[in-house]
């Protein structure tokens, strides 16, 4: 399954420049959810997101999308659609982990969106793209203590 995993506030804000990891908030419960969901799987993320995190996340294979980047701790690719198709053909799980530009390009090819809805109205400059045209349906809302997990499937 190809899954978009994202955390967004009530206005779909996802990113803020200048914070220690690029996120507009600190939500440890959501980090735990991200970790347990993606552990031992592969993450695909844009170069800006990877650089905001600063290092590969432990116990996960990290693929970074870039036209011009080298880091021997991760796999670097410049073909988003080809990478997604290869995972689909092998029946392997892939977690699309942002940022906005990668979500936007990946939305037509994914099966599922796991959106952690962080309550409140934060400041930042990067937003999750509108996905109303891609036929994702909200199939479940799972309440956590500090956020609600919205699960959308095609
Ligand atoms: N709240 C969340 O769940 C969440 C999750 C992830 C990220 N974020 C936030 O989102 C923000 C970053 O988003 P962003 O849109 O600015 O950047 P991004 O998508 O993380 O990275 C953009 C870069 O990725 C590379 N790239 C993108 N598409 C490509 C393609 N098709 N082929 C080759 N390279 C490609 C390009 O690198 P080159 O210029 O090197 O070619 C591009 O400059 C940060 O604030 C981050 O913290 C939030």
From TrEMBL:
Entry EC number(s): 1.5.1.3
Domain DHFR: 1-154
InterPro entries in alphabetical order: DHFR, DHFR-like_dom_sf, DHFR_dom
Keywords: NADP, One-carbon metabolism, Oxidoreductase
Pfam families per UniProt: DHFR_1
Tree of life domain: Bacteria
Pathway: Cofactor biosynthesis; tetrahydrofolate biosynthesis; 5,6,7,8-tetrahydrofolate from 7,8-dihydrofolate: step 1/1
Broad EC category: oxidoreductase
Membership in a protein family: Belongs to the dihydrofolate reductase family.
Protein name, per record: dihydrofolate reductase
Lineage: Bacteria, Bacillati, Bacillota, Erysipelotrichia, Erysipelotrichales
């Amino acid at each position: 399954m190809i899954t978009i995993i994202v955390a967004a506030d009530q206005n779909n804000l996802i990113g803020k420049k200048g914070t220690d990891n690029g996120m507009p908030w600190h939500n440890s419960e959501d980090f735990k959810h991200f970790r347990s969901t993606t552990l031992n799987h592969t993450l695909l993320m844009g170069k800006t997101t990877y650089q905001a995190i600063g290092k590969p996340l432990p116990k996960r294979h990290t693929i970074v999308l870039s036209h011009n980047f080298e880091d021997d701790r991760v796999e670097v690719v410049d073909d988003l659609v080809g990478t997604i198709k290869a995972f689909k053909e092998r029946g392997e799980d892939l977690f699309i982990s942002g940022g906005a530009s990668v979500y936007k390009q990946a939305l037509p090819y994914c099966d599922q969106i796991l959106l952690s809805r962080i309550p409140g109205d934060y400041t930042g400059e990067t937003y999750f793209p509108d996905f109303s045209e891609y036929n994702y349906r909200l199939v479940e809302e799972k309440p956590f203590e500090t956020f609600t997990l919205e699960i959308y499937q095609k």
